[in-house]
Amino acid sequence: METMHSAASDPVLLYVATTSAGKLRDFSVAAATVSAHFRIEPLPGMDRMAIAPEDGETFAENACSKAEFYSAHASGKIVLADDSGLEVEVLNGLPGVRSARFATDAGFRPDLPTDEANNLFLLERMHAVPADRRAARYRCVLAAAQYGKLCVRAEGTVEGEILTSPRGTGGFGYDPLFFLPRLQQTMAEIDLEAKHMLSHRGHALRALLASLQGSQTIAPWPPRTTIAP
């Protein structure tokens, strides 16, 4: 294996295994603000691949298994995959790894779009929780893999509170309810630059790119082969 290197004019391509336009935008903008050494693109042909298993009990298990799975089907590409979500203290860490399926798991309002249903269900679960017990965090675990083998993993979190009603039209997921006391704004109200500096995905991506830049585990492309004498 070789330390990854690339000329400044030829950035390393990292392919994100996600169909979420919001996640892809978050990672792409964050990468551009961190280093010109990397460029983020969606994993090509992902819609034709089998769906990776996502049955782990932790964010780390899911992120690593997805990165390994998709990179094994991606012809040597370095594939990033994340698992991220919301942890609410008064709900003992829920919705956690089930953040994207919180309302669906409970059969709550299947007539609504997923994000709207999840936010309404969270508000219902917390309707009697006082203001001083509404602490929560966003957590993101991001993994990079190549040839089906894990290369590096990183994690990021951001602390906040859950409001009693949504605010803001930006972002996605639980962003309209996730309040940042220091800024007095929700994740759906801050601009993209601020979001990528503060968000759990931004923290995880910066840590992962720093690890990748000096990584000894990235295989050269094309892969070396051993020829028998």
Q: What letter string, H or E per element, gives the SSE order?
A: EHEHEHHEEEEHH
Largest sheet: 7 strands, mixed
Proportion of strand residues: 15-25%
How many domains, as an integer? 1
Radius of gyration: 19 Å
| Secondary-structure arrangement, i.e. CATH architecture | Alpha-Beta Complex
Low-confidence stretches: 220-229
CATH class categorisation: Alpha Beta
Termini separation: 21 Å
Write out the strand line-up for the largest beta sheet, numbering strands in chain order: 2-1-3-4-5-6-7
Mean pLDDT reading? 87
CATH topology: Maf protein
Query: Helical region count?
Result: 6
Describe this structure in words.
The chain is an alpha/beta fold. The chain has a single domain, classed as Maf protein (Alpha-Beta Complex). 29% of the residues lie in helices and 23% in strands. The protein is built from six helices and seven strands, in the order E-H-E-H-E-H-H-E-E-E-E-H-H. It has helices spanning 21-34, 59-72, 102-106, 114-125, 192-198, 200-213; strands at residues 12-16, 38-42, 78-88, 135-146, 149-162, 178-180, 185-186. Strand 6 (178-180) and strand 7 form a beta hairpin. Helix 1 crosses helix 6 and helix 5 (192-198) crosses helix 6. The chain is globular. The two termini are 21 Å apart. 37% of the residues are buried. Residues 220-229 have low confidence and may be disordered.
